[in-house]
Amino acid sequence: MDKLYGSILVLLSAVCFGIMGILAKYAYASDVSIGTLLFFRFFIAALLFWSWILYKQIPYRQPLKQMITLFMMGTGGYALMAILLFTSYSLLPVSLAAMVMYMYPVFVVILTSLLYKHSIEISRLMAILFSLAGLYFILGTNFNQINILGIVCALGTAMVYALYIVQTEKIQNQLSPFLSSAYVTSFAAIALFLFSMVRQDFSLTISSVGWFAIFGIAFFSTFVSILTFAMGIERVGSSKAALLSIFEPVVTVMFSYFLFQDILGPMQKVGIILILVSAMLTHVSRRKIQPAKNLESSM
């Protein structure tokens, strides 16, 4: 029963993260700038994480070396990921941006193979080939109909997220995922506030729909998503949780189809299937070489 509850928690996390691109589209439609949206996403999420830490009385003091690592993860990791991801959301259909970004497991495989000298097994090689084939089918050959900057931003998100995951795995045995999330979202909020100041696009003149989208992204797609994923991992383990997280882009594609009528062609649907198969192969392969660890899921 406990494992079933854990699986439900992970699926809830996937749904919460999967709707982020949808909410971002509503924010953009209400003229909320990228800088404003991202700052409030992490500022509100940080307040919620720190409230949780104080409620649970989790010790929060950390040595300087750990703080430097968390600072780099918040500014060079989460903040940069958010800028790239939400830029791709503004330039591409949500479903397309989500699927290109979901190539990140392949980049994790490549990074771990390079950093830890792991040989690339057949399942990993197949995952890479499936992923590249999926990207080819999604993009097609007529690049005039594809926003190249949007694709570059989505791929950049996947690469930065892969680096973030590798770094996160190094510190998970030393830190509570809630504590690391609190610090990372706090540092990301500071970096993104400066980012919005440089862009001169920070504004508090936001409609009710815009605020609804902002609070939805901060609460559901950041705080609840990370919280339920961490609670689910405690019950089902990181390997099963990673496999269940494959439903994230599926949720995004489904919602974007019903709400925005994002219509994908037959070849793009084949590409989506190939990328999902690639992600499954990647997670199964990682399960063979890694002990269960607490991983953070959501960006």
Automatic annotation (TrEMBL):
Q: Which organism is it from?
A: Halalkalibacter kiskunsagensis
Family, according to the entry, reads as follows: Belongs to the EamA transporter family.
* Listed SUPFAM superfamilies: Multidrug resistance efflux transporter EmrE (SSF103481)
Where is it localised?
Endomembrane system
* Pfam families tied to this protein: EamA (PF00892)
Family annotation (InterPro entries):
EamA_dom, EmrE-like
Q: Where is the EamA domain?
A: 5-139, 149-282
- Which named protein is this? DMT family transporter
Q: Which UniProt keywords apply?
A: Membrane, Transmembrane, Transmembrane helix
- Where the protein is mainly located, per its record? membrane
The membrane topology noted for this protein in its Swiss-Prot or TrEMBL record is: Multi-pass membrane protein
* Taxonomy, superkingdom: Bacteria
Q: Does the keyword Translocase apply?
A: no
Record keywords: Transmembrane included? yes
Q: Mind telling me which residue stretches traverse the membrane in this protein?
A: 7-28, 34-55, 67-86, 92-115, 122-139, 145-166, 178-197, 209-229, 241-260, 266-284
